[in-house]
Amino acid sequence: MAQKIYMIGIGGIGMSALAQYYQAQGAAVGGSDREASPTTAMLESKGITVAIGQKGDNVPADTTLVVYSDAVPPENAERARAAELGIRQISYFGGLGEAAEGKRVVAIAGTNGKTTTTAMLGKILIDAGLDPTVIVGSIVSEWGSNFRLGKSDIFVVEACEYRDHFLVFHPDVLVITNIEWDHTDYFKTLGQLEVAFAEAKSHAKAVIEAAQYAKESVPELLLPGTFNQDNARAAKAAAKAIAPDISDTSVDTSLASFKGTWRRFERKGTLPSGAELIDDYAHHPSAIEKTITAAREKFPNKKIIVFFHPHLYSRTRDLFADFAKALASADEAYILPVYAAREPFDPTATHEALAEAVNNNGGHAKGVADFAEVTALLTSFGSDIVAFTMGAGDIYKAGEAALKL
Predict the structure, then answer these.
(1) Mean pLDDT of 174-194
(2) Which of 14, 152, 325, 384 is at 20 to 30 A from 294, Cα to Cα?
(3) C-alpha dist (Å) from residue 116 to 73, 105, 127, 230, 324
(4) Is 129 part of any domain?
């Protein structure tokens, strides 16, 4: 393994986990990100230096490997500097694929639920004494991290389908939680996405899909929602596949005490006027709809109000009607401007248009300008309301600001 590694976009949820893996293997690790975040703070607490802002001279001349996230183009100043210095560069998933070589890999893929399923499976195997290494796309409550180093050869990893990244793996077990059209900037049709999953299945020794995991029984969970029961079933089936001697009792005991992960139906606290605040990563229409359904089951006598931060113009545009229907199931929805990430502005997929479409579907929605407006609204809600900050961007910051007032 390279001994001095620089990671561009190190604060990303996957990149930060890989950084910890490299550090655990004895490498000197540093990197940069555009802004500070909970993940950059976590890395710095572990002795990994993070530069905020990306400048060419951030890259040490004696770096032996540069790893970059998908959001970082070749013309990025740090990548350009690495090229000038002749430093080997690989993408995040390239690095993750190399890390998995020679291991017994359990890869968790799917449109929704893969983060929770990965974390559940990791906990099951840890509690059973099987000591896996786990890389997951969120901070897991029990570990306080998105990475857990194990001493066995079991390697549990969340595997994303975007740009066919999960094809770097040749897993012993591939779990597919579900397949719905997503990443529409890359997969132009559901059929294209299904082709990618078919190829991923051809790489695996064993494949677990809904037809297999639906047969599993699971205990009562701390997490609400039928979708989390499905996640638990998938994790249980995966545990049995990689560790056939594991007992149902061991698995169920572990699942019953699973506390969840960061930004997955995460109860944040009570807002100044008495409303309960929950933060959730849901950014696909079906995930939004299922989360709202779970909230109604959990809080039957409360109004459910959602502050939604759409992620990507392409996803908002291509799944527009489904977003409108899903958000209409809330009592009220406030919609922020689209979190563009890697995409240019698209006037056909604005937050105002989505709010209008929600109202046309029988919902009650309004566009809001920014996080400051969200924070102000959150502080006004009484104890009859459960408010959600929701989306794959950084909407959680508006809720955290409201809690501090």
Answers:
(1) 96
(2) 14
(3) 30, 17, 16, 10, 25
(4) yes
